[in-house]
Amino acid sequence: TDSCLTAIEGANALNAFAHRTPDMAREMARAADARIAAGDASPMTGIPVGIKDVFCVKGVPSQAGSRILQGFKPEYESTVTRNLWTAGAVMLGKLNQDEFAMGSTNETSCYGPAVNPWRGAEGVRLTPGGSSGGSAAAVAADLCLGATGTDTGGSIRQPAAFTGTVGLKPTYGRVSRWGVIAYASSLDQAGPMTRTVRDAAIMLGAMASADPQDSTCVDLPVPDFEAALTGDIRGKRIGIPREYRVDGMPAELDALWHKGAEMLRDAGAEIVDISLPHTKYALPAYYVIAPAEASSNLARYDGVRYGHRARLSQGDGITDMYEKTRAEGFGPEVQRRIMIGTYVLSAGFYDAYYNRARKVRALIKRDFDQVFDDGIDAILAPAAPTAAFPLGSVDKGDPVQMYLNDVFTVTLNLAGLPGISVPVGLDSQGLPVGLQLFGRPFQEAELLNQALVLE
Ligand code: GLN
């Protein structure tokens, strides 16, 4: 804990931590020491972790990267963080992220972007990815031993790929969403971001639990994920989806994808060509469904109940208060999503957009069901269409450019399946590239074991 706190002090330039909690960390570390001395330790006891800002931690600023939650200190604890503290983990602070987890570069954050510890040509500063960019940067720079992330459309897996770390998005319902500030409730899922697959297995085991406070969280026993890591994948059938070989994909990314398949084959798996025919509709469906749910979830930020309230003028009524607060409190990307969301949910357009997107979502899910029914155990694909790129290079006037970065990740959230991103090598610029494995529902143990082979 002390060495992490020192490392954090020396890493201001990464802007990974939004709020630090050194006193809390030292106190929790002392309690962990006592637990270890008493022989009452779990594998997470005394492990210093960072928490994405979107998780409510009692008494600690929790803003989800948004100005509208300035000054908000929750009176309650998210189930995930409560589980981590119960296991003995140590809280280092809150990690930077895109505002309300909307973004793929960490540049929509009210704290300014987190910075990737990897550098581009001539030392240029790169994005750590997003929305869990602070988590990825902190883990990659050894500021913590693990971090929590959330993944609504790739926000754990893409930043892991951009920083050479491991990121696991569990099956929808494996981890409780209670106390996690909502973006798109039918897609959001929390998971671990770590240096190694083994650490991800340990951390997921501590984060997951049944939870009566989240009706979508399943009441299944949490397996010993670490014990499942045998490295034996003989006879497993791994699918390579041809639809993920998109136009304009860099040849070296294709080569690393090939290398990943070879590693699995060398370990005794069978590599099978598969088809997920509705893949190309995933991105448009996601960018209807996620904003629709977000527009509803974000209606609660009205200047009355949480955080920021605009300064009002004489004669302003309650509507002025709502409007001014929301105009000041939400950044441009969040405002855009609210507008898209309310539009696709409005009476005249609901069937044309939202309902159609829901049907597409069902077809995407069916593609995966079909492949798993045919005996495929996991699917191997790139985690992102590029390696990390320079901060500031996405044209602010063209948000679709940023959305396109999610082309390989959103399918999994629409289908509710588990996925893990693992670093497999470096590109010609010396930057890390990640591959992801998709697994069957609630088979995270098997998925982690397969991922071990790619490490
Ligand atoms: N980049 C995607 C978005 O902006 C995914 C974000 C996420 O997974 N939270 O919606």
From TrEMBL:
UniProt-listed Enzyme Commission number(s): 6.3.5.7
Tree of life domain: Bacteria
Keyword Nucleotide-binding: yes
Residues annotated as catalytic: 52 (charge relay system), 131 (charge relay system), 155 (acyl-ester intermediate)
Domain named Amidase: residues: 1-448
Pfam families per UniProt: Amidase (PF01425)
Catalytic function, reaction form: L-glutamyl-tRNA(Gln) + L-glutamine + ATP + H2O = L-glutaminyl-tRNA(Gln) + L-glutamate + ADP + phosphate + H(+)
InterPro entries the UniProt entry points to: Amidase, Amidase_CS, Amidase_dom, AS_sf, GatA
Keywords assigned by UniProt, alphabetized: ATP-binding, Ligase, Nucleotide-binding, Protein biosynthesis
PROSITE patterns given in the database record: AMIDASES (PS00571)
Subunit details: Heterotrimer of A, B and C subunits.
Family: Belongs to the amidase family. GatA subfamily.
NCBIfam families xrefs: gatA
Biological role: Allows the formation of correctly charged Gln-tRNA(Gln) through the transamidation of misacylated Glu-tRNA(Gln) in organisms which lack glutaminyl-tRNA synthetase. The reaction takes place in the presence of glutamine and ATP through an activated gamma-phospho-Glu-tRNA(Gln).
Entry protein name: Glutamyl-tRNA(Gln) amidotransferase subunit A
Natural source organism: Paracoccus rhizosphaerae
Gene: gatA
